[in-house]
Amino acid sequence: MLKQLTNSNWLKEVKKSLNLSQVQRDVLIGTVLGDGCLKISRSGKAAQLQICHSYSAKEYVYWKQEIYANWVFCEPRYHAINNSLIFRTVSHPLIFEYMKAFYVNGVKIIPKNISDMLTSALSLAVWFMDDGNGYLNSYALRLSTYAFGLEGNLLLKSCLSNNFGLKVSLRKDSKGYQLYIPTSDGSALRFKDLIAPYVIPRMKYKIERRRHP
User: Fold this and answer.
1) Phi and psi based region of residue 44 (left: phi greater than 0; alpha: psi -120 to 50; beta: remaining)
2) Is residue 2 part of a domain?
3) What value, to the nearest 5°, has the Cα angle with vertex 24 and ends 118 and 208?
4) What is the pLDDT of residues 171-201, one digit of tens each?
5) With bands split at pLDDT 50, 70 and 90, how would you rate the model's confidence at 3?
6) Residue 92, CB half-sphere, CA atoms under 13 Å: how many?
7) Fewer CB atoms inside 10 Å of the end CB: C or N, the chain?
8) For residue 40, is it within any domain?
9) How far is CA 75 from CA 39, 142, 188, in A?
10) 3-state class of 80 per DSSP?
11) 17 and 98 in one domain?
């Protein structure tokens, strides 16, 4: 159901009926860890999820829009400046709860209780489709986590180990830290097996286009 987004009584009534399904929660976690962001409302008591990806990944944008179909009332908009598609959910107190966890003074962070939140393979898959990649000369995988600093990366490392049995390491370069998932102990293969059922066809190149060292 797509309608022009207004402050009408209709929208107010729709918001009262909204709830986040488990799938929507899982995708939200993966998206916030990746390229997505949360925007606070003018009231300061609600927030909306913003999703933006390159136009070349338009199938991925529409896949996410379909997941949030009851939360989105306009089509993704094209931004010529960065050749991207963008959409936002309506503002809602339920999403504001995630903003309180993932943002401090407007800056995205990793919550100390991330292990209680990142528990789903679907969340892992969305996170990887957003910000993950592999190497041309190895079957190892990586997650771009530069924005989260050393503390955030250590929290994510612990979460991946405790919740998914993945032995990841931190790699530092000129941009900061990112998570590296090695092949040596089978973690890269386990990670791929976990997320493969959820990776959409358009994004499968991230886990399939590899060659031996």
Assistant:
1) left
2) no
3) 65
4) 999 999 999 999 989 999 999 999 999 999 9
5) very low
6) 21
7) N
8) yes
9) 18, 32, 36
10) coil
11) yes
- CA distance linking residue 189 with residue 181, whole number of Å: 9
CA-based R_g, the chain, Å: 18
Of 134, 113, 132, residue with least CA distance to 123:
132
Structure tokens, 133: 């990649």
Residue 97 lies in a domain: yes
How far is it, in rounded angstroms, from Cα 13 to Cα 5?
Answer: 13
- The two tokens of residue 7 are 């402050």
The pair of structure tokens assigned to 122 is: 């679907």
Q: What is the pTM of this model?
A: 0.92
Residue range of the domain that includes 147? 114-207
Structure-token pair, residue 115: 């292990």
Instruction: Give me the residue label for tokens 């066809």.
Output: 201
| pLDDT (0 to 100) of residue 14 | 82
* Euclidean distance between CA atoms 40 and 48, whole angstroms: 7
List all residues 6 or more positions away from 193 whose beta carbon is below 8 Å from its beta carbon: none
Spatial contact of 111 and 102, defined as CB atoms under 8 Å apart? yes
Taking 3-state DSSP, the helix, strand and coil percentages for the chain, each rounded to the nearest 5, stand at 45, 20, 30
